[in-house]
Amino acid sequence: MINKVLVANRGEIAVRVLRTCKELGLETVAVFSEADREAPHVRFADEAYCIGPPPAKESYLRGDYIIQVAVKAGAQLIHPGYGFLAESPTFARACHEAGVTFVGPKPETIEQLSDKAAARRLARRRRLHILPGTDRTLDDDELLTSAERIGYPLLLKAASGAGGVGIRTINSRSELETAIPTARREARSTFGDGALYLEKLIENARHIEVQLLVDAKGHIIHLGERECSIQRRHQKLIEEAPSRALDPSQRRRILRAAVRIVRAVGYIGAGTVEFLLDPQGEFYFLKVNPCLQVEHTVTEAVTGVDIVKEQLRIAIGRNLSYSQKEVKPRGWALECRILAEDPFRNYAASVGRISRLREPGGPGVRLDSGICEGFTITPYYDSLLAKLVTWGETRAVAIVRMRRALEEYQIHGVTTNLDLHRALLNSHRFFGGQFHTQSLEEQFVPTEPEEEDYLAAALTTALLDWRRRAGGRTRTDGAINRWKMLGRWELLGGGDL
């Protein structure tokens, strides 16, 4: 009997997994570092155990400690979430050896896919389009020679990288010569592997990914695609499902390609296949992510499928709850990643105690959060605080709801990127779907309001307050911003964006 699950993670993803476990009637176990003693995920669990000091390498990356806790608590399953140990074949293998079920693909599958250059070779054998680049580990001289053959600009990537970490844009040989030793050191310290490879940079590309589920009997379903093109330094900021960039023919081809690649490796579990779509409409295989993705929420919003629930079912040998015919995406969903960083200070990380928190709600709004009032944001972990998701019957409705939810959202005590998201959601380029993976850095430079703007706002507030106190009526319906215009367009029967 499976009755207890340990969640080997922290923050919003730990809370999200714990919620599904509780809905399934499973007992839950959380682990936490000394810095996370008061974190929400600790309170959500039935049991919680401290596994070490704040640095992740001494706590959340200590697979041996986590397995010891699982055995001690009597947990039969370990769900790794994403990041940390989610893509570690060593940890997955150690779970198996300890008699605990790892919620994810087999260790050998993770091993096969963790080497991105090897994954490129696999995709080539399956006749998927891949970007010009290198398919094996190269020394420094070979990288320089290959770069001349591929042509600049290109990307220098860590072979074992994930989450956009360890990627550098290279525009010349001199840049590559300087970047290689730094990239090797960073890859070795972050992933334990200094191997690097090269990939041609496709300018003005869109980032498209396909969510798949595969059970132990080989049943494969896809849950459609999502787009993750709004990025900063290869880190995703806004995701949406479906993608506005694909026509029906492209959609069919990219979904078939994703199914083909996971079938080739005998994949079991939840996985994501990532592609780049060039301006001419051709798509190229990037990689397979063998774990739950941050942006799985938008796929859940349009399909109604609880991906974590399906992960748990697959892990204990059950069949998928759905056939492909039963998966019927509906509407549109957006996700904004709320980060503890300052867009007006070159995205510098922010730390501090959350003194006040007001969270959004209402129709079509979902918030996956790992914070609470009084919680202290430390410099030890990723800056992701929460994921704000909105759903609507059309893209226009989803955008209006996101704009409204962002206005409601307040986090005090730590600097966040909420203002950046508000500006992006008001951008005519975003409304029209006119963006690509470099758009944020090339076309959108966040600037703080000038001192005169603050003064004007203060004077306006004082004037309105004086009028209210004097008993006068203040008309505000004459000032119609783009958000209100969009909402009225949708209300009066306007088309989708």
- Described by the principal axes of the CA atoms, the overall outline is globular
User: Kindly, what is the distance between the CA atoms of the first and last residues, rounded to a whole number of angstroms?
Assistant: 49 Å
CATH architecture of the largest domain, by name, is 2-Layer Sandwich
Count of the domains: 3
Note the main sheet.
8 strands, antiparallel
| Helix proportion | 25-40%
The CATH superfamily of the largest domain appears as: ATP-grasp fold, B domain
How are the strands ordered across the major sheet?
13-12-9-10-11-14-21-19
CATH class of the largest domain: Alpha Beta
Low-confidence stretches: 472-480
CATH topology of the largest domain: D-amino Acid Aminotransferase, Chain A, domain 1
**Total number of β-strand segments?**
22
Average pLDDT, rounded to a whole number, is 89
Counting helices, strands and paired strands, the structural category is alpha+beta
Strand content: 15-25%
Instruction: Supply Rg.
Output: 23 Å
Counted by DSSP, the helix tally is 17
List the keywords.
alpha+beta; Dna Ligase, domain 1; D-amino Acid Aminotransferase, Chain A, domain 1; 3 domains; eight-stranded antiparallel beta sheet; five-stranded parallel beta sheet; 17 helices
Short description:
With 497 residues, this protein is of the alpha+beta class. Helices cover 36% and strands 24% of the residues.
